[in-house]
Structure formats: C-alpha cells, structure tokens
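Final report, section 2: Outcomes. Of the targets proposed, Glycosyltransferase 2-like domain-containing protein is the one most frequently requested by collaborating groups, and we therefore present its record in full.
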Amino acid sequence: MPFHLSPVSWLLVLCVVVQLVYAVYYFWPFGSRHVAETLEPDSAHEAERPVSVVVAARNAADQLRQLMPVLLNQEYAKFEVVLIDDRSEDETILYAQQLTQYYPNVRLVTVERTPNNLAPKKYALTLGIKVARYPYLLFTDADCVPTSYQWLRHMARGFETGADLVLGYGPYAEAPGLLNKLVRFETLLTGLQYLSYAERGQPYMGVGRNLAYTKQTFMATKGFASHIRQLSGDDDLLVQDAVQLGRQAAVVTAAEAQTVSLAPTTWREWWHQKRRHMAAGNRYRFADRLRIGTFILANGLFYLATLAALVVPDPEWVALAGAWVVRTSTALATYAQASRRLHDRQPLWLLPALDAGYFFAYFLLTASLVLYRNPSRWK
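The predicted structure is given below as tokens.
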C-alpha cells in the first residue's frame, strides 16, 4: 500500500521538523554548554574597567530599599550607582538624597518633567547615562534585586572578550498560582531564544532588568534617538541599533549574575506588559523577525494543525501520535536544559500545558496588537 498522508498531517510533520532544526542548532548547544559559575576577584583589572550602574525609578521607594543595599555592597573594585528619580510622588527622592549623603558613589539625577511625545523611561535613562562617569554601563530596574554580591563582577567580565554589549538573564520569583507559572515559563522561553541566538552570533535583544553596554555604544547608536517616541524598547531596540552598527554581544548566565523581580500578579497587568514589549517587535531587523517569527509560527501551527487533525473524518492517529511524541520529547528536553543553564527551575510536568497556553496567548496578543495599538505608558 503506498504511503499517504493528508495535508494536515504533512503540516504537523513540517512544524516538528522546523522545531527540531531550532532545537539542534540553537537551543541544545546553548543548554548543554558548560560555563564557569565562579569568578576570582581581580582588583587590578576591575579598577581598569569601572562601571556605572544605572537605575531609573518612579514611585519606587519601597523597591529601592530592597535593591540599593545589594547594589552598594557589590564586590567590585570601582563602581558608582546613578539613581534617576523620574517624577516620583512618593519618598523616592528623600530616600535617594539620604543615600547620596552617606555613599559618595551614589549619584542622583532628578527628572521633573518629560518633554512632550518622548518616552519617559528613555528620557530618564538618557539623562542618567549622560552624567555617568564611567565607560561601562550596567542596567537594572528599581523592582529587581541581584541574586548575589557578585552580580556586577560577572556582568562586567563579559566585556573582557571585547564585547560591546553583555546580555544577562532576569527571572521572576516563584510564587503560587497559574499566572506565575506561565509568566516564568514565558521568561524562560524568551531567555532561551535571545541568549542562544546571541551565542550563535545573532543577538537581537536584551532585557533592561539585566543588561550592560559601553557608553561608546550608546553614543554610536545616538542613544534612543531612532525610537525615542516609542514607549517600549529601551533595551531590545537599543541592542538592535547596536548590532546594526556591528557591535558584538557576550552572554552571561551564571546564577550569581542574575536579577530577580516579582512577576505580574494579575492577568490584566501581564497582558498590558506583554503588549508593550511586543509592540517593539515591528522595528526589529527583517532577519530577526523572520527567525523569531518562524519559530513562533511553527509552534502555533502545530497546535492548530492538531485541532484540525482531530476534527477531520478518519484522523490519522499514527501520524498525529508520532508528531506529538517527537515534538513533546524535543520540547521537554529543550526546556529542561534551558532551566539548568539559566538556573531557573520550572515544573517539568506542567511544561506541555504551559507551552500550549503560552502560544495560544501569543496568538491573542498578536491579534490584539493588529486590531488595537495603544500600549501603556511607563508608570
């Protein structure tokens, strides 16, 4: 009997093949790579590579009380903290002023108003970068906390390879509830993509929770000028501009080199956050959009093809089962490796459901951006 598959089954097979290609070329080499997790102090070299840690804060007094003690106790030979108070109405400015009185390496920048039609956070960061004393810049958000006092040292060592940008990872803290699990899974998947692509020499984004670049790189891209009116993109679009100019990126994934923040606690908050981040995607280079889009499309079509295969007369159960076994085992192996490499523990037994839920949500988010474009302003 001649071998025959329906168009839907062939689509399933094609989707699985595409995902296998991504896993073999990008994800598995990244997940299986062994990297040094500890660093010995090197005061001489650290003094030659002073770092300005830049933090923009708006109404974040409580968060800064968690963050600043960890920043100020970083084990690094020479660094400063540039703290930007962006139009705060709480005690942020008072707390920041107190810090400057006791710590000479804390510098305060105050933003009283943002010019019309400029993205507030990008404007605030630009002012902070302009006053930064040192040529190496390390960024995190006010609601993040480094996982160790070695964070700065690990991230700064990324520049030793001659890189202009250093891409770090910023997981969310584990908490009860399905939303937290979905947010943490999405963060793992996003980290797996942008970090594995970067290790293949194809960097396309970073996250502002844990990102470093040279001041020279910021000046070469003219700062945020190409997207200063767009609310999102102070991290990924700057990386896009830098890579376009030939700047090189290094990847740092050590457990001590991460920053942790609290995940959104409501579905509405997460939805608006994702819409804001995804809105920057249309400014990515075509090659990056094609690479990311092909992966997302292959995953999304896999689930749609599965539904189609179940409703047609006489489903081809052997093809469907085979595609699911291969795809599920590939995905679990990929996520397990990424979880180990990024030190971001995930509930492996729940990953298939989280994977399906994420790509369904991604479809809805994409549709909402096409139909309604109004990303929230940075608060």
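The first helix runs from residue 7 to 32.
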